[in-house]
TrEMBL record:
Pathway connected to this protein: Amino-acid biosynthesis; L-lysine biosynthesis via DAP pathway; L-lysine from DL-2,6-diaminopimelate: step 1/1
Residue ranges of domain Orn/DAP/Arg decarboxylase 2 C-terminal in the record: 18-378
Gene3D superfamilies, A to Z: Alanine racemase, Lyase, Ornithine Decarboxylase, Chain A, domain 1
Protein's UniProt name: Diaminopimelate decarboxylase
Naturally occurring in which organism (per UniProt): Mucilaginibacter lutimaris
Protein family membership: Belongs to the Orn/Lys/Arg decarboxylase class-II family.
Originating gene: lysA
Length: 400
């Protein structure tokens, strides 16, 4: 991902910053579009994963829809040129202001997460003389086999409507004249790479759509949510999410009836590999038990390790590139990275003990001023940055 020109450019740029490789982004989006269009599936980009303008513009140019989780995301999606007929709005706590803004924008569908929310959207739509398209977000009680911090589809989670409430949902829908029932929506978690999870989800969706049809509703939309995972361990050798297998599972196990549309809401899988957080070593602290690399980036720039115990590959670009140049001069045709001989705890400068990217990271001997890349940071990275400790806003640099 980083050739010597790129590293040279990093050397002349103030750190920390997010580096976006637009080729990686486009290759990923190509793969996603090709794999989904084979089956006529509709993909909405989950904006919360990354709302960097250049990234969102690139995604919009592919004709994907947008999956939003706040009123501001709805507005931003429309400002970025997403077709309002392809904008969906999810979230367990939509405020009246946000619902009104989405009604004014004539979005395609609200993914509704409680019976009370159904009643409120109905009231607010009626007041505007509008009819709101809605899908019922059902909590399918499917275990995503992912980290429990990012599981959303179990009975114990706050998201969605539980199946034992469906009779009340049906009754409410019949009463609400300003709602148009479009279909059913699911989202079981994030960073899911086990296709068996999606197969289980398909079975639940099939049961649920039968339930609605049996109760006199036409289910036009089957929205399976998002959650497809990426390879945080091998960003270079396995840089594109397995869209092929993912969409194939749904085409095989979902019972799609004539006239139905299948929708997806992918965030992470579309953007994660396109960015790295680039930082510099400020200090090297050698202790008796531990060695620390203290970076000029911390949880204020990338919070995932601290928030979800997430893994990111960490590389010392300066030592790797020095090694490559040396090996090239020695005329070695096959170059592997230098031996990783030291274990460092790679930490940030923030006054919190949790401000650690990873413990016991194998790295070559590292020095003050070395460039460190924290890989696969394109999803839930820059968007979660904060100015805690009154830090400067993190900058973005693009490959073009
Ligand atoms: C966050 C979210 C997504 C996207 O999840 P990824 O794991 O990034 O694919 C999709 N749908 C809903 C409702 C979400 O909240």
């Amino acid at each position: 991902m980083f050739n010597n020109n790129t590293i040279q450019r990093f050397n002349n740029t103030e750190t920390p910053f997010y580096y976006y490789d637009m080729d990686v982004l486009r290759n990923t989006l190509d793969a996603c579009r090709d794999a989904s269009s084979k089956y006529g599936f509709h993909v909405h980009y989950a904006m919360k994963a990354n709302f960097n303008t250049k990234v969102v513009d690139a995604i919009q140019s592919y004709g994907f829809g947008a999956d939003c989780v706040s009123g501001n995301e709805v507005r931003s999606a429309i400002e970025h040129g997403f077709d309002k007929g392809k904008v969906v709005f999810a979230g367990v706590g939509k405020s009246d202001k946000e619902i009104n803004a989405a009604l004014d924008a004539d979005i395609f569908c609200f993914n509704v997460e409680s019976i009370q929310e159904l009643e409120i959207i109905n009231e607010l739509a009626a007041a505007k003389g509008k009819v709101a398209g809605i899908a019922i977000r059902i909590n399918p009680n499917v275990d995503a086999h992912t980290h429990h911090f990012i599981t959303t589809g179990l009975d114990e989670n706050k998201f969605g409507i539980n199946t034992w409430q469906l009779n009340d949902v049906a009754e409410t829908l019949r009463k609400c004249a300003s709602l148009k029932f479009l279909g059913i929506h699911f989202h079981v978690g994030s960073q899911i790479t086990d296709m068996e999870v999606y197969r289980n989800l398909c079975n639940r969706i099939n049961e649920m759509q039968d339930w609605f049809e049996d109760h006199g509703f036409t289910v036009k939309i089957l929205n399976t949510g998002g959650g497809l995972g990426v390879d945080y361990y091998n960003p270079d050798t396995n840089g594109i999410a397995d869209f092929e297998s993912y969409f194939k599972v749904f085409s095989k196990f979902l019972n799609v009836k004539p006239g139905q549309e299948v929708h997806f809401e992918l965030g992470r899988a579309m953007v994660a590999q396109s960015a790295s957080l680039i930082s510099r070593v400020l200090y090297v602290k050698n202790g008796q038990k531990k060695n620390f690399l203290i970076l000029d980036a911390g949880m204020t720039e990338l919070m995932r390790p601290m928030l979800y115990q997430a893994y990111h590959a960490i590389e010392n670009l300066s030592q790797n590139s020095k090694f490559k140049i040396q090996k090239l001069e020695e005329n070695q045709s096959e170059i592997v990275n230098p031996k990783s001989e030291i274990k460092y705890d790679v930490v940030g400068p923030i006054c919190e003990s949790t401000d650690c990217f990873r413990k016991d990271v194998d790295l070559p001997q590292s020095y003050r001023g070395d460039l460190i890349a924290i890989r696969t940071a394109g999803a839930y990275g820059e968007v979660m940055a904060s100015n805690y400790n009154l830090r400067d806003a993190v900058q973005s640099v693009y490959s073009e």
